[in-house]
Design goal:
Elements: H1 3-6, E1 13-14, H2 19-28, E2 33-37, E3 43-48, H3 49-56, H4 59-63, H5 66-70, H6 76-80, H7 88-91, E4 101-102, H8 108-118, E5 122-129, E6 132-140, H9 141-151
Parallel strand pairs: 1-2, 4-5
Antiparallel strand pairs: 2-3, 5-6
Helix pairs in contact: 8-9
């Protein structure tokens, strides 16, 4: 099966969207990773949710995990203050996760290899035409596993 057939709709944000809106999208849709596109539809980053959570944890807590035990939910508002007024591009980790993407004709094994190499649970399927780039959808690790189980007769 090819990428066009495996691709499913997936919520995404652009680099210009507000960081707080990206967090809401991730939370409301229970997403494993955040898909970020540039304004023209070019994939910008795919950031696992765990790395976005990391962006909310203050550096001093990362350096001394014992502090996390004494800071409770009453201080949660201070964790999200870092989002205020920032765009997605300004907020996501400095070592942004390069987007994994393929064309619509890529095969399942090609997608699996890319996913394994990049350590990101999403591969965007991008179609290019005279008008530019268009997100066809996303192949998630879960949907790829379902497909591979079905093809292998284990589904």
């Amino acid at each position: 099966m090819i990428a066009r057939d495996l691709a499913e709709p997936y919520p995404h944000v652009t680099t210009d969207d507000q960081a707080v809106d990206a967090v809401r999208l991730l939370a409301e849709h229970d997403l494993a990773a955040l898909l970020v596109l540039e304004r023209d539809g070019t994939p910008y980053a795919v950031v696992p949710g765990s790395q976005l959570v990391r962006q909310l944890v203050p550096e001093y807590v990362m350096e001394d995990p014992l502090l996390a035990a004494v800071i409770d939910d009453r201080h949660a508002d201070s964790l999200t203050e870092a989002l205020a007024g920032k765009t997605v591009a300004q907020w996501i980790p400095a070592r942004a996760f390069k987007p994994a993407f393929v064309g619509p004709e890529a095969g399942a094994l090609q997608i699996a290899a890319l996913m394994a190499r990049t350590h990101v649970p999403l591969v965007a399927v991008i179609d290019r035409d005279d008008d530019g780039r268009r997100l066809v959808g996303v192949v998630s690790a879960a949907s790829l596993m379902r497909h591979l189980l079905d093809v292998g007769g284990q589904g």
